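Hi X.,

You mentioned you wanted examples for the new student's onboarding notes, showing what a folding record looks like when two proteins sit in one file. Here is a clean example. The first protein comes first, with its sequence line followed by its structure tokens.
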Amino acid sequence: MVKRVIKYLVVAVLVAFVSIQIVPYGRTASNPPVVNEPEWDIKATRDLAVRACFDCHSNETHYPWYSRVEPVSWWTQNHVEEGRDDLNFSEWSWEYDDVDEIAESVMEGEMPPNYYKLIPGDRNLSERERENLIRGLISTFNYSDKARQADDH
């Protein structure tokens, strides 16, 4: 009796998994064109941001193979859309409420999120690289903010 219930349960889970593959949300994810980026202080800052931030905060998202499988694709696409809505380095604008919060969120360990760090790959920064990214973000936004203010006058 128990074996029969387990067998039906396994079949039901497999049918559900195959069925949800029909829903295209996430599998058809794309990257819109890059419109504008911040004036990075140095190339190394951009390189670190690309590794640690761009998958969720740019129009240059790298979608790994498993992000094309439901329900992972749903979660991935939703996460990327929220990340781009909060901050998009590819559609950079000084309309962001608090530019200082970008470096601060990296300093406080909020970004990248802990689950993102669990995914293997070169996106995981060493402590030294993280510190360099923080310094670079602060430098980038201070330099760009001064240049923007000078252009306004």
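Then the second protein repeats the pattern, sequence line and then tokens:
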Amino acid sequence: MTTLTLAEVDALAAEAHAGQTDRIGVPYVEHVRAVADGVAPFGTGLRMAALLHDVLEDTALTADDLLRAGVPAAVVTTVVRVTRVSGTGYEEMLREVVRDHSATLLKISDNAHNSHPDRAAHLPEADRLRLAERYRAARAVLWPAVAVEDVRAVVGRVNPALLAELPR
């Protein structure tokens, strides 16, 4: 079986999320691409995982579908690790994520993009406040799990406004 390239994984993600929009009405694929850009310093495999990080939750694709399509097994493992399973609370999922460096970096990038002020500005105030607190609490779990330089590398690419939260 042929292993997919980064461009082919991007196309797979675009096809899987076709017609989907995020909370502010932007095509969903733009979110996963932004998350992938955030982890670009950490290699192609992590960029692939970031492109696919929501397909198991938000589309009909399964982990087996990804493997059959030619997505590398290590990428699928990371995607599975960041996928919230029905019946699993958000905090419990985060505790699982931080057991894996790659998954943690991916979730840091996801959190940073979801927290971006330009995105949050389009949400109703109640949602903006609720999500800001949720994402802040998640950063308290995610950021200590990796080196501060890694957090800086990701956040600086995706949401530089969050850099002020890092210790000096």
